Every structure is written in structure tokens, then in C-alpha cells.
Amino acid sequence: MSASERAGREVAEALARDLDAHFEKLVTTYEHRVFGFALNLVGDRPAAEELAQETFVAAYRALCGYGPERRRELSPRAWLYAIVLNRVRNRARSPARRTLSLDERCGASLAADPREQPAAVVERRESAEALRAALGRLALKYRAPVVLRHVDGRSYAEIAAMLGRPAGTIKAEVHRGLAQLRKELRRSEA
Amino acid sequence: MILADLRRLGEARAPDDFAANVLRAVGLVDRYALLESPLGPVYVAWSGHGISAVMRAASDAAFEAAFAARFARPLLRAAEPPRQALARALAGRGEPRRLAYDLRCCTPFERDVLVKALEIPRGQVRPYAWIAREIGKPKAVRAVGGALARNPVPLLIPCHRVVRSDGTLGEYALGAGRKADMLAAEGLDVGQVEREAQRGVRLRGSRTTKIFCFPTCADARRIAPQHAVAFGSEREARAAGYRPCRRCRPAAA
């Protein structure tokens, strides 16, 4: 069992014993990963923060309805990611939630405080922003598998289980997604 | 290249107040109330784990600021009063040992010290060195003092009942002067404890049972004056043929 699997078991075990006492452990264990996952799917920090917070609130409500057995059997990370994905899908469907274009958002967040950062950090930040912007232009169908595989390092089998599609399909989607991502990056550099 | 860049996107970190905002959003925050204690009104906070803080503060705002500075968790004034058991224990009429405490802010060592301090009965005192020995860290006497000074729930976990071996009261989380006030409120004759300690009395034995105790142990106080004998050290008591009390455990058995 890997260290992160062990951490997941521990959190699930604690949630099964006493949800209210240990929900904080779920949040502090996964806040950065859930926020990061949300950020890579939606592209900007305020929206990612909102999405990640909604995810934990939805998780808490769901856990309140689960018995101890069901809570104990959870794989917390995969479960939280599934909630994030569901919300992103629902959001994409409702036109009212469509926000600024990704390019505008990149401009805004880069302008935040460029003077205080050393050049190297700004540059790296820029490439991360550019990469997220390019990711944002992929269809969600490709974006989610690419992020899960190459940002998060999940196995194809895990991603297949999480997205409910066969591993072979996921593999093809990641492959196609990466090809599109390269094309997007070349286009934005030109 | 692109794969390494993607991998780096995984280093994102949630904002510092993220967890606190989530807990507030689902209603899992510490609650607090102002309750009566022998030292006047004190602020008491509790979470799902148990009682998390006892503090003196000039106002709600001052308490909230002090709580945030120490625990970095959200806090809300309680809409309903806390359990009766808490109010009773705080007023000195209940049993603090039966309450649950939230000691997540403490290290395992600090927790051991605080749980051990809970064993000291009302109106009695024990030396810092006693706690150190009882928790299996006989050399950590100073660290015991530090752990008690950081007690997040003073009054309930009775760090005021732990004093220096020389009989002086020592530091207190709520102020050194209040330590004497608390002990006096529990019926201990602080002046007498200090005078005895200054005369070099550390232990008291009974000529009839040949058992020695800490002077404030309930058993020591039952010894009739004509049968009481004072000792300056464990060695002195043992040399006289006395064995340590099993209740207050003034020495390893």
C-alpha cells in the first residue's frame, strides 16, 4: 500500500468513527490536491477556490447521509475528484455560469503583483498560466484524463474507474488530448 | 517537456484560509460561551472533539482574536448554552475528568502531561517532577513546566495544582497570582503549604502505617498530629522504614 493510499485509509477510518470530529482531517489532507485539480480544470484561482469549497461542502452533506460502513470504504481522493468533475460538467452545461475568456483571466492574474516576484518565478508562473489556458481550450472529455494522468499521475485503471470509461478509451483520450495541447501551445506562441 | 510542465501544475496550493472557510461553510466550527469560574467570567470554546480553550479576555472580539492567533480555526459564539457538566466543572462543582478535551494543538508529550495533571484531586498539589516521573520522562521537569504553561484549557485541566518541589507555586497559564487564588478557592491553605516547604518538609509519613505521602494527599491530611512525621526526601523516608503511598505515589513503588 502506498503512503497516499495509507493516508486515504486513515482518513476514511476516522470519518467512519466520527464524521464531525474528523471532517477537518479530510479537508486538510486533500485541500491542496482538490484545489489543484479544480484549478487545472477551470483555469483560474477564484473559480477553482469556489469549486473546491463547493466540493468539500457537497462531500460533507453526502457523508452525513452515509453510514459508518460506507464511509470506511471510501477512497477519499478519487471520491472528491469525482465530485469536482461532476460539478465542472454541470457548470459547462449551464450557460449562466460561463465566465470571462481564459485569456482575459490569465492577463488579470499575471498582473497581480509582478514587481515583487523574481523574474524566474514570473516566467515559470507564466508558463503554468499558459499551460492552464491551453488546457482550458481542450474539451472536458480530453482535459480531465490528461490532468488525471499527467498532472496527478493516476494510473489508467484508476482514471477509467473514476470516469466510468474503459482504460483503453482513456489511453486514447490522453493521447489525443496531449496532441491537441501541443497544438494549442504552438498556436499561442505564434 | 510538456509532460514535465504538466507535472508541475500539480504543485498548486489552496489559499491559507481555505480549510477554515470550508469548516465554517459546513458549520463545523468551534463554539464559545462566557462562563463563571472561581476567577470570574472566562471564555470557553469547544469543538466536535471536546473543550478546546479556556481563556480570560476583555471582550468577545478580544477572545476571538486570541483564539484565532493560537488555533487558526474558525470560531462562533454558541447559540445555545454548553452542557451543564461543563459549567459545573468550571465553577468547581463538577468532575473535569469526565469531560472530553480537544488537545489537537498539543504535542503527544504535552498531551501526556495534561492528562496526568487531570489526576490530581481538588485542593491538592504535586511537584512538576512528579508528572515527569509518572509519564516516564523523569528528566523532563522543565519541559513539564512548559507544557503546563501552554495548557489550552486551564481551570478544567488543573495545571494550577502542579507546583515546584521547593514549595513555591511557580508559573501559571492565567498568571502566577491567580494560581494561589485558585488553590485557595479549592480549600488549600497555601500559606501553610509554602511554610512547610520552606522548612524543608517534602513528604509526610504516618508512624502507625509506615506510609509516606505528599503533604497535601488526602491520606496525609488524615494522619493525626501525634502520629505524623515529616521527611525532607524519599531517601530519608525509606531509610526510616516507610513505603510510598499508593494513592499519591510520591516515589516509584
Mean pLDDT of chain B: 91
**C-alpha termini separation of chain B:** 68 Å
CATH superfamily of the domain at 1-99 in chain A: RNA polymerase sigma factor, region 2, helix turn helix motif
Widest sheet, order of strands of chain B:
3-2-1-4
Structural class of chain A: mainly alpha
Q: Which CATH architecture of the largest domain in chain B is right? A: Orthogonal Bundle
Overall form of chain A: globular
Any idea of the CATH class of the domain at 1-99 in chain A?
Answer: Mainly Alpha
What's the short story on this structure?
Chain A has 10 helices and no strands.
What does the model show?
Chain A is an all-alpha fold and 190 residues long. Chain A has a domain at 1-99: Rna Polymerase Sigma Factor, Chain: A (Orthogonal Bundle). Chain A contains 10 helices and no strands. In chain A, helix 2 runs antiparallel to helix 3, helix 7 packs across helix 10 and helix 8 crosses helix 10. In chain A, 36% of the residues are buried. In chain B, the strands form 3 sheets. A 4-stranded mixed beta sheet of chain B has the order 3-2-1-4, with helices on one face. Chain B has 253 residues and is an alpha/beta fold. Helix content of chain B is 35%, strand content 14%. Chain B is elongated, with a radius of gyration of 22 Å. Chain B starts with a helix and ends in a 9-residue tail after the last strand. At the A-B interface, helix 2, helix 3, helix 7, helix 8 and helix 10 of A face helix 1 and helix 2 of B.
Q: How would the blueprint of this fold be written?
A:
The complex is a heterodimer of chains A (190) and B (253).
Chain A: H1 3-17, H2 19-42, H3 45-65, H4 68-72, H5 76-93, H6 102-110, H7 119-136, H8 140-151, H9 156-163, H10 167-189
Helix pairs in contact in A: 1-2, 2-3, 2-5, 3-5, 6-7, 7-10, 8-10, 9-10
Chain B: H1 2-8, H2 18-25, E1 30-35, E2 42-46, E3 51-55, H3 60-71, E4 75-77, H4 84-90, H5 108-117, E5 126-127, H6 128-134, H7 141-149, E6 162-163, H8 176-185, H9 190-198, E7 203-206, E8 211-213, H10 218-221, E9 228-231, H11 234-239, E10 243-244
Parallel strand pairs in B: 1-4, 5-6, 8-10
Antiparallel strand pairs in B: 1-2, 2-3, 7-8, 7-9
Helix pairs in contact in B: 6-7
